[in-house]
Write a structure and sequence with these properties.
By secondary structure, this protein is of the alpha/beta class. The chain is 40% helix and 18% strand. The chain is globular, with a radius of gyration of 19 Å.
Amino acid sequence: MKQLYTYGIYLKKKFKTKVSKLPMGISGFTCPNIDGTVAKGGCTFCENDSFSPNLASNAGKTFLNLESTSNPILEQQLQDVDRQLKSSRAYISTNYGSKKFLAYFQAFTNTYAPFETLKMLYDRALSHDDVIGLSIGTRSDSITEETLAYLVELSKDHEVWLEYGIQSVYDETLDKINRGHDAKNVKEAILRAKELGLNVCGHLIFGLPGETQEMMLESAKQSYEWGIDSVKYHPLYVVKNTLLANQYRQGKFTPINKEEYIDTLIKAIKMKPDHISIQRVTAGIDDDTLLAPAWCGSGRNQMMNYISKAMAKEGWRY
């Protein structure tokens, strides 16, 4: 049985101990696809204030972008970093035995703020005990050369990753999901990051509107060719308070079924160069906001059992 090359294996081999991510969501961060800079309403699968009364309550709060000239909530953001890292570190070290950590800037677009703010937040995260690096979730249209240069500097002494949402390499699909940029934009961002020597994780979504399995696999193939170092595979699921939920209720969108998703996943992994690590093979949400498909809410362990059995047939262990 062949052990698939996972991100955990990569980290343990490099640091000789178990390393885990500590996820964070920072106040004041948003997305250029939500605030109207490149589009309005966000991606069709993303919950946002166009559809959600809860998010609409954010009206009047401070949100940053690349052009912000001041940051009145910087102290609150630094407190966010301290509080969330402390809390998640305690939980993960106790329950998973991890000894070292990456501060994972996860929610929204985590390079979409003035450089001085980003520098202070990244530095604060790295000041925490046993935090050996950063993993930064962002969009390809929301990172500056100044920020890239600073991440290169940090990478001399720390483990630094950029996580880009690729989703699909087809512009017609990106238009359908209101992504706000084309495939060329994300390709160029990944190539630039790799030119600078940064680590890149690419996110791929299988089951996007109108896509065939051939298209999904082509997105995987091209992403590998762009030079990503790690990959996350996601099925597209429908949650309340999204444009996709409206399309689903109107019969305009049919989610990918479990069998097709697993088949596509297996074929994508077969195509993957061995040096690209795998960070995720599925995703879901286990609460009443999930509308479809039901298998994305049936419990992570159950879904992983299905995937593990399919992998075992290929002679793989994940």
